[in-house]
UniProtKB/TrEMBL annotation:
InterPro entries: NAD(P)-bd_dom (IPR016040), NAD(P)-bd_dom_sf (IPR036291). One of its GO terms (molecular function) is GDP-mannose 4,6-dehydratase activity. Keywords: Lyase. It is an enzyme of class 4 (lyase). This is GDP-mannose 4,6-dehydratase. It comes from the Bacteria. It comes from Rhodopseudomonas palustris. Residues 22-323 form the NAD(P)-binding domain. Its EC number is 4.2.1.47. Gene3D superfamilies: NAD(P)-binding Rossmann-like Domain (3.40.50.720), UDP-galactose 4-epimerase, domain 1 (3.90.25.10). The keyword Lyase applies. Coiled coil: none annotated.
Amino acid sequence: MTGIVPASAPCAMARAGFDKYLVIGSNSFTGASMVSYLLDQGADVVGISRSDEPHPAFLPYRWKKADRFRFRKLDLNHDLDAIMQLVTAERFPCIINFAAQSMVGESWANPDHWFMTNVVSTVRLHERLRTCDFLERYVHVTTPEVYGNATGTLTEDAVFDPSTPYAVSRAAGDMSLRSYFRAYGFPVLFTRAANVYGPGQRLYRIVPRTILFIKLGRKLQLHGGGTSERSFIHAADVADATRRIACNGKLGDSYHISTDRIVTIRALVEMICAMMGARFEDQVEIVGERLGKDAAYKLDSSKLRSELGWSDQITLEQGIEQTIAWINRWFEELKSQPFDYAHKP
């Protein structure tokens, strides 16, 4: 991969999918959901993450036959040589990278940990990958947090204005990849999704946490009264969009993945309470807002819809119903799982 390429380099022809993928960060919620989706599409998938696979309740691909999936425990910060040995041995045509330190508020406590994973180790990976002539597509799964506390609807060319160490670290990684695309023709595509949710999500996230706390009769802390606005999108819709982008997106381009529906966090919690027959006032405790919390992200996903024919298929109500059903199915096991985020450097 050498030489300068145009600002938008489309696929030579529409592609249904690759036969084989490497998913970095396969233990993450979106990573595991992506693995499950790709297996359903008939692909072979190798997943790598720095920790052992979590409880099967958090791995959608373990809820069915997964004989075309292989897992390797490898840490981007410490095992780059082993990762590259795997990459060169398998000659993956497509890599999708979900790996990141991704908690926003917690990034203030140890910002250097976020920069090590999201910038330093990520750039080291890209520097090694850029000489792999078999790599056709590299999907960098990033975040709308890079835009900061923006107003109005955001298109993919919105200016970066990050508000937290997490967001700054992701913006730095994104900008590094932009330079690699321009300088080397590195075959990158960027995705930025709205708030992803669905069955299998870790319990410290707002949707499963609310459902679980209602079932347990525990009070949910609602930061800042839940006034911040977000779009919530089902993991299956995100996986479908990501595959379309991986296969047929324009190299070097960014794509927003979002529904058009915006809700406040309070309205989301009220909806879940109503669906579960609980009183909002009995379930919620209002607490102070988190440091650097952005008020709203309103992503314009018209580019993804018009160029790649994508549309979201699962309504928020349907997705919440699915998540309630998932928690009901695994309730006894989930009660013994961590309810709060535990940071790992």
